[in-house]
Write a structure and sequence with these properties.
The protein is mainly alpha-helical. Helix content is 64%, strand content 3%.
């Protein structure tokens, strides 16, 4: 409904769009309004795309200045057709995203290849949540959705893996904040996050950086029972992988035997 000139960079329309996504997450949880919300998001994408095309250079610079705007730009630059979808992922608009991914199987990889540090964005959102928040766990659920669609925690757009960047960011927080991410860490380990991942962090926050493995960090951050849960996930994962490899090997031998009898 806004006139075209209101979509110029640094105008208030961008603030309105940001706040829209915060409320859209709550609307998305209500089945009576999900179809209306989907229509609004599609319309918003159509309205914003010309502005992104026209002000591509300025918005790209805005991304460089405002690193929190993860969903604006990925490794291939600004992609207007993915901006709204990427924002929906980052803000935890779960039902809308799940339906879109179900209809377009390749969309998940397109979004994760577009958004720089998408797991870190979801982790930052988890850290901002508090017990009793009506949106509690929505970002964990979004993380689970991405992992279920094949997003690899050991990959990254600009060098370090998503998993490593998450751990190094968590190293600068306190125990209470790390505990908020415990369920997310369990999910990542179940989906292949490297328990031996080498990380670099500053243990004294102002001192000399040191290198340490992921399992050593996790052992330091969580109590014995919690770390035992993480360790058990990794052991079960390894056992499942070995069993799968054995079955695959037996199937190959069976195929060779069948072929030899033809």
């Amino acid at each position: 409904m806004a006139p075209r000139e209101s979509f110029a960079p640094y105008t208030q329309i961008w603030d309105y769009a940001f706040h829209f996504f915060l409320y859209a997450r709550q609307v998305d949880r209500n089945p009576f309004f999900q179809a209306d919300l989907a229509s609004m998001l599609v319309h918003l994408q159509a309205a914003l795309t010309p502005a992104f095309e026209k002000y591509r250079g300025v918005l790209s610079q805005w991304y460089e200045d405002e690193h929190s705007v993860y969903y604006l730009k990925g490794k291939d630059g600004l992609e207007p057709d993915l901006v709204i979808m990427s924002a929906c992922v980052c803000f935890g608009i779960l039902n809308f995203v799940a339906e879109k991914f179900a209809k377009e199987p390749q969309l998940c990889s397109r979004v994760t290849n577009h958004v720089s540090s998408i797991f870190c964005f979801l982790m930052d959102s988890l850290l901002e949540e508090y017990p009793g928040d009506p949106h509690e766990y929505s970002h964990t659920s979004m993380l689970e959705l991405l992992l279920a669609h094949g997003t690899d925690p050991n990959s990254g757009l600009d060098g370090p893996s998503e998993w490593r960047k998450m751990l190094e960011e968590l190293a600068g927080t306190d125990d209470a904040e790390r505990l908020k991410c415990f369920e997310a860490i369990k999910l990542l380990l179940r989906h292949g996050a490297d328990f031996e991942q080498q990380c670099t962090y500053d243990p004294e926050l102002g001192g000399e950086k040191v290198e340490v493995k992921a399992n050593a960090l996790l052992r330091e951050w969580f109590n014995a029972d919690q770390f035992g849960v993480l360790e058990d996930i990794v052991k079960r994962r390894a056992s499942k992988t070995k069993k799968s490899q054995k079955i695959s090997k037996k199937m190959r031998h069976l195929k060779l035997w069948i072929n030899s009898k033809k």
